[in-house]
Write a structure and sequence with these properties.
- There is one protein chain.
- The protein is about 70% helix and about 0% strand.
- The protein is mostly helical.
- It has two domains: about 90 residues; about 90 residues.
- The chain starts with a strand and ends with a helix.
Length: about 200
């Protein structure tokens, strides 16, 4: 492991053999240190995943809950380590989910914003939503101009692109209330995340 100026480099969770790590932890005489290294690696991975897609905060909530139960004495260090290993595996799966969904990372973020926490969708409806996601992603490329946030007309063009694309393609599961929330959420995301 390389040593950076501010301490050891974070572990790459995708490169970890979790079974070997678990066996090593059982015999370790430095369990507290091993636990802190794993926590730091998970925190770094969470920061990266959430920076890309803010709908992943449920993983951060789970991580913080695990740490909190350990700090309250509700979990042993061994139990916490095992739970953190499970969370690490989940993070690795989440990191590659866009490939399984056949979407880019940006498209997956839009998909997640449209599908989490509601509405409940059938597999066919999810396919429809993915089609809308791709259309919206392409449409946004046309309306996101330089300094688009500074001009009311440019902001309006972005919002209109979002509303029109969603209105044209979303399945019936999206009630008018859900549609309005999703439009607002997507505009907020684009406003915060996309610079042009």
């Amino acid at each position: 492991m390389k040593i950076a100026e501010d301490g050891p480099a974070p572990l790459d969770l995708s490169q970890i053999d979790f079974e070997a790590l678990s066996r090593r932890f059982e015999k370790s005489k430095t369990k507290n240190t091993d636990l802190e290294v794993l926590k730091a690696a998970i925190r770094a991975q969470l920061d990266k995943l959430i920076r890309i897609n803010r709908t992943r905060t449920d993983y951060l909530d789970k991580f913080e809950e695990l740490i909190e139960t350990y700090n309250r004495g509700s979990r042993s260090i061994e139990e916490l380590f095992e739970e953190l290993l499970k969370l690490s595996r989940s993070l690795n799966e989440e990191q590659t989910r866009h490939v399984r969904e056949k979407l880019t990372e940006e498209e997956l973020t839009i998909f997640d914003l449209l599908t989490r926490p509601d509405p409940a969708l059938t597999e066919e409806e999810k396919v429809e939503v993915k089609k809308v996601v791709r259309q919206l992603h392409e449409r946004l490329q046309d309306v996101l101009v330089l300094d688009w946030r500074k001009k009311a007309s440019s902001r309006a063009s972005v919002l209109t692109a979002i509303k029109d694309t969603l209105d044209e393609g979303l399945p019936r599961a999206y009630t008018p209330e859900i549609y309005d929330k999703k439009c607002a959420s997507l505009f907020e995301h684009v406003y915060e995340a996309v610079s042009a």
